């Protein structure tokens, strides 16, 4: 039932009083309260308690891949909860949904990524991937292979090690936390990674870090196939293959963070499939359940799994919700929906429609520039004068304003402005989106851009 205005005010006051929100400004929130209080969702649309409707242009946190309000997922959760909502996977206990989902994931991930360690989300997956990489080398007799190299602008989450791997300074440095063995490299320098030492940017690339640290100290490289929360940055052609080659050359594991890219977002089931690269470990979360339950995992290849499977003592790692039966049942049904409704193909086709829409916006709006997309992972920049590469002054808050204009017109999108002059906007709707819904999204963006001056 629809909430009344009084209820909204009451909820807003309670929220202000009792909740600190992630990635929000606490002082502003404590005085103005929640911007939106959501009440329901269906397909690509969500509603707030005032019954206002919005297109969910970033699938909430890039995760609601199959769209909102899917009864099949509610039904399967209900059914599993009635049978047994939760059981542990510690001490070797099993449950059918976790086992079936593990088999399914092994069958859809590339190469011989055949074994999973379950977590409850992306950050936990990345911390787990780091621990398992270091543990792998330790078991192989290389105790010093501990360093992890990640990329600037990469986002890997907020647990201590994932936070340090994140290459966005505000996140990386928050609360002064540290995992000193995690190093940030410059992103997307294909020639440098291939060995061009005369390149002006060579110092600080992955290869130069490996050379200065010594490969005998480096456990793994982690990267997102396409950087998401750092502002939707596509790798140049050949980059992922170059990094795979580099890792092989120096005997270093490659971890692909597929938390955003995985499960169809890019028009391929996994982001790395776009470049036919197979990592040694893959972090997954978000789209594995489309947000209907919280679940993540690290999928590893036989090389890594075989070494871990030889370990003859208790593995002291795991989360209460590792292999959560209800979450896994939801995950299985979610993958079935992605397959049955051919959502990977739809992401590819609708990505092409989105690109057409961006072409139109690019023609029409002077400030619209640098459009990019792979499937339904898309972004563009706003610049004062793109022809001369002149950004907006910081005080202009261009991306924030355009996002706000979209919000007023019923479209939720997201912007990134964590560096001076950066005005990036991301668009990543549910994979179920139709051509008409893409057109509506573009039309709102068109109006919002026109209203900004
Ligand atoms: N990795 C990537 C690529 C992400 O985008 C995110 C979240 O946005 C994470 C990891 C962290 O996942 P979680 O928020 O589920 O811990």
Automatic annotation (TrEMBL):
Alphabetized CDD domains for the sequence: OAT_like
Domain of life: Bacteria
PROSITE patterns to which the protein is assigned, alphabetical: AA_TRANSFER_CLASS_3 (PS00600)
Pfam families: Aminotran_3
A molecular function (GO) term: transaminase activity
Keywords on record: Aminotransferase, Pyridoxal phosphate, Transferase
Keyword Transferase: yes
Keyword check for Mitochondrion: no
Family (UniProt): Belongs to the class-III pyridoxal-phosphate-dependent aminotransferase family.
Protein's name in the database: Aspartate aminotransferase family protein
Organism: Metabacillus endolithicus
Organism phylogeny: Bacteria, Bacillati, Bacillota, Bacilli, Bacillales
């Amino acid at each position: 039932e629809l909430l009344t205005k009084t209820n909204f005010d009451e909820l807003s006051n309670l929220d202000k009083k009792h909740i600190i929100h992630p990635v929000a400004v606490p002082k502003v929130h404590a005085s103005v309260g929640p911007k939106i209080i959501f009440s329901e969702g269906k397909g690509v649309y969500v509603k707030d308690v005032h019954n206002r409707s919005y297109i969910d242009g970033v699938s909430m946190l890039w995760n609601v891949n199959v769209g909102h309000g899917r009864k099949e997922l509610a039904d399967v959760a209900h059914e599993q909860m009635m049978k047994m909502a939760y059981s542990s996977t510690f001490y070797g206990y099993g449950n059918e949904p976790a086992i079936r989902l593990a088999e399914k994931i092994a069958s859809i991930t590339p190469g011989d990524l055949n074994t999973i360690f379950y977590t409850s989300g992306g950050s936990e997956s990345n911390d787990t991937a780091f621990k398992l990489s270091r543990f792998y080398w330790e078991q192989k007799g290389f105790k010093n292979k501990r360093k992890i190299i990640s990329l600037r602008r990469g986002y890997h989450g907020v647990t201590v090690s994932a936070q340090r791997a994140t290459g966005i300074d505000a996140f990386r440095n928050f609360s002064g936390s540290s995992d000193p063995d995690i190093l940030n490299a410059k992103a997307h320098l294909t020639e440098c990674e291939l060995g061009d030492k005369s390149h002006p940017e060579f110092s600080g690339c992955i290869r130069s870090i490996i050379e200065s640290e010594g490969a005998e100290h480096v456990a793994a490289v982690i990267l997102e196939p396409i950087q998401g929360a750092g502002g939707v940055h596509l790798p140049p052609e050949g980059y992922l293959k170059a990094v795979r080659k580099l890792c092989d050359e120096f005997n270093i594991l490659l971890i692909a963070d597929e938390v955003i890219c995985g499960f169809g977002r890019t028009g391929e089931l996994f982001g790395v499939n776009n470049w036919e690269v197979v990592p040694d470990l893959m972090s997954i979360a978000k789209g594995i359940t489309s947000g209907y339950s919280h679940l993540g995992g690290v999928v590893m290849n036989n090389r890594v799994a075989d070494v871990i499977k030889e370990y003859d003592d208790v593995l002291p790692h795991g989360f209460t919700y590792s292999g959560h039966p209800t979450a896994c049942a939801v995950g299985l049904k979610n993958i079935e929906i992605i397959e049955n409704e051919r959502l990977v193909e739809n992401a590819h086709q609708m990505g092409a429609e989105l690109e057409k829409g961006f072409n139109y916006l690019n023609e029409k709006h002077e400030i619209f520039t640098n459009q990019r997309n792979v499937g339904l992972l898309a972004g563009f920049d706003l610049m004062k004068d793109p022809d001369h590469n002149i950004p907006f002054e910081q005080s202009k808050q261009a991306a924030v304003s355009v996002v706000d204009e979209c919000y007023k017109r019923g479209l939720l999108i997201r912007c990134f402005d964590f560096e001076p002059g950066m005005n990036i906007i991301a668009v990543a709707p549910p994979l179920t989106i139709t051509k008409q819904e893409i057109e509506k999204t573009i039309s709102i963006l068109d109006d919002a851009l026109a209203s900004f001056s």
